[in-house]
Amino acid sequence: MTERMRLYATDATGLNPGADVWFWSASALAREDNTEEEKGTFSSLCAGKKPQPGQRVVYVDGGFDLFSSGHIEFLRRVLDAEEALGREEGWYSEQATFERTSRGEDYGPAFVVAGVHDDETINRWKGVNYPIMNIYERGLCVLQCKYVSAVVFGAPFTPTAAYLTSMPWGTPDAVYHGPTSFMPLTYDPYAAAKEMGVYKEIGEHVFQHVNAGEIVERIMRSRERYEARQRAKGEKAVGEEATRERERLEEEQREREKERV
User: Fold this and answer.
1) What is the side-by-side order of every strand in the sheet holding 174-177?
2) Sequence-distant (≥ 6) Cβ neighbours of residue 72 within 8 angstroms
3) Between residues 34 and 122, which one has the greater pLDDT?
4) Which 3 state secondary structure label does DSSP give 190?
5) CA-CA distances (angstroms) from residue 93 to 55, 57, 89?
6) What's the pLDDT band for 63 if we cut at 50, 70, 90?
7) Residue 142 burial class via C-beta count within 10 angstroms: exposed 0-12, middle 13-18, buried 19 and up
8) Least confidently predicted of 19-33, 80-94, 220-234
């Protein structure tokens, strides 16, 4: 699995290191709830590119189950928001661009870190049928997204201050969250980020409804329609067979009548 991660965590050429990959371990309470302020332990799984001078470290998290257009659009909008901020602050000015390129290749204003929740955490909050994909499958999908600079496997459901201030890239300059409607919560998982003044939201977008729950519902509806078609075909086949049998018997009856004549 480590080799698969290394292959997925490459740059656009597929030959050089790309995304930085880490695993976070802590108690079950720290991973799944909001009752424990644990720093936990960050372990490097695959060394990749680090934040460059001037880049803002941006954190997002989620299950990323059945990685889809909803996830991709959210991540794209996070980067768009950071690029808009960069333009306001002169990131793309001729002087700033020259300073970056004089050191090597140019780069964007944001280093996006995506935290991927483990299977137990998602199962607790979404129910027994989730996640559909295990943490490694979901993490590999996120690794392949061009909007992501680093991935943390096993990220907590609630990014506490202890967790955020212990990240390998330093405390995030921003923590983004998008539209979520499938989990009724009794507390705010992003309370720490709000208290730290780094919380930001991505508003509604055209693909926000595309998530694991929606995709599963589509599959179930398609299966129901398929089964209905198959039942209809079966009933039609039974009816056609009965018609053929009746015609055969009628033909036999006519032949017998001819013989008697």
Assistant:
1) 41-46, 20-25, 150-153, 110-116, 56-62, 174-177, 199-201
2) 145, 147, 207
3) 122
4) coil
5) 15, 20, 9
6) very high
7) buried
8) 220-234
Contact 117, 61 (CB under 8 A): yes
Q: What's the confidence (pLDDT) of residue 79?
A: 96
Q: Strand pairing partners for 21?
A: 46, 151
How many Å apart are CA 18 and CA 7, to the nearest integer? 10
Closest listed residue to residue 125, CA positions, set 201, 184, 66, 57: 184
How long, in residues, is the chain?
261
* Separation of CA 97 from chain center: 32
- The predicted model scores a pTM of 0.82
Measured CA to CA, the distance from residue 40 to residue 67 in angstroms comes to 27
Identify the helix (H) or strand (E) that includes residue 45: strand 41-46
pLDDT in tens, 201-224: 998 888 887 777 777 788 888 888
Q: Which residue has the tokens 């330093």?
A: 170
Tens digit of each residue's pLDDT (9 = 90 or more) over 76-112: 999 999 999 999 999 999 999 999 999 888 999 999 9
Domain ranges of the chain: 2-208, 211-261
CATH number for region 2-208? 3.40.50.620
